[in-house]
């Protein structure tokens, strides 16, 4: 079990998974924020994603001084656990070395929170991942997308594009979330929580 000061993968090797849905139809939706944050990290290290046999788009790099496999599952969100598990197995990364970036309805737009373990809070991507891994003990970087307006079904809301107002601020928040990921990887959970909560 990890402690609040732990560094993912003990600072040796990590698997960083962004959750989302593949294809242009979903590219700019709220549910795809995990993919968008990984794209920012890929830009920072000057790399690009390529298809991998485990069922993910993969970029191997050094992130914050740590050997990292950045992955975007090629399956839909509710089946993302299988490809992430396959990639983790391929690279020899245990759940303690997995960091997942995902959208979070219960946080205001742009808010970033980090945690280790815990429930899935109704998130189908996390449910799939916890089921596939057989544990909830992995790191999560939660990017707030806010609650849907009025009586809109959350399942519909997460598959819609960001609003015009949100789009104006999106790059700033993606950049900040990427900073939070790098802080987590380099300095551990407590340091990242202190800096970004």
The CATH class designation is Alpha Beta
Q: Any guess at the CATH architecture?
A: 3-Layer(aba) Sandwich
Based on CA atoms alone, the radius of gyration comes out at 15 Å
How do the SSEs run, as a string of H and E? EHEEEHEEHEHHH
Uncertain runs = none
Strand order of the largest sheet: 2-3-4-1-5-7-6
Structural class: alpha/beta
**How many discrete structural domains?**
1
Separation of the first and last Cα atoms:
22 Å
So, the CATH homologous superfamily?
Answer: Peptidyl-tRNA hydrolase
| Dominant shape | globular
User: Percent range for helical residues?
Assistant: 25-40%
Defining key terms:
alpha/beta, globular, 197 residues, Rossmann fold
Explained architecture:
The protein has helices spanning 33-45, 81-91, 124-133, 154-157, 164-187, 189-196, and strands at 13-18, 50-52, 56-63, 66-73, 98-104, 112-116, 139-144. It has 197 residues and is an alpha/beta fold. It has 6 helices and 7 strands; from the N terminus they run βαβββαββαβααα. Helix 1 crosses helix 5 (164-187), helix 2 (81-91) packs across helix 3 (124-133) and helix 5 packs antiparallel against helix 6.
List the helices and strands and how they pair.
Layout: E1 13-18, H1 33-45, E2 50-52, E3 56-63, E4 66-73, H2 81-91, E5 98-104, E6 112-116, H3 124-133, E7 139-144, H4 154-157, H5 164-187, H6 189-196
Parallel strand pairs: 1-4, 1-5, 5-7
Antiparallel strand pairs: 2-3, 3-4, 6-7
Helix pairs in contact: 1-5, 2-3, 5-6
Catalytic activity: an N-acyl-L-alpha-aminoacyl-tRNA + H2O = an N-acyl-L-amino acid + a tRNA + H(+)
GO biological process, one term: protein quality control for misfolded or incompletely synthesized proteins
Site (Stabilizes the basic form of H active site to accept a proton): 103
């Amino acid at each position: 079990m990890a402690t609040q000061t732990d560094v993912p993968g003990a600072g040796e090797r990590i698997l960083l998974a962004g959750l989302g849905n593949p294809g242009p139809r979903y590219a700019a939706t709220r549910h795809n924020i995990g993919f968008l944050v990984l794209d920012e990290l890929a830009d920072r290290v000057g790399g690009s994603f390529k298809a991998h046999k485990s069922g993910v788009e993969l970029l191997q790099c050094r992130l914050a001084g740590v050997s990292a496999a950045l992955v975007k599952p090629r399956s839909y969100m509710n089946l993302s656990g299988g490809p992430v598990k396959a990639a983790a197995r391929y690279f020899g990364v245990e759940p303690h070395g997995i960091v997942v970036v995902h959208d979070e309805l219960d946080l205001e737009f742009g808010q970033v929170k980090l945690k280790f373990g815990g429930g899935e809070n109704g998130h189908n991507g996390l449910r799939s991942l916890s089921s596939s891994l057989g544990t909830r003990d992995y790191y999560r970087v939660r990017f707030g997308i806010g609650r849907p307006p009025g009586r809109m079904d959350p399942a519909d809301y997460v598959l819609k594009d960001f609003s015009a107002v949100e789009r104006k601020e999106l790059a700033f928040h993606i950049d900040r979330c990427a900073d939070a990921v790098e802080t987590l990887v380099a300095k551990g959970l407590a340091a990242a929580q202190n800096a970004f909560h």
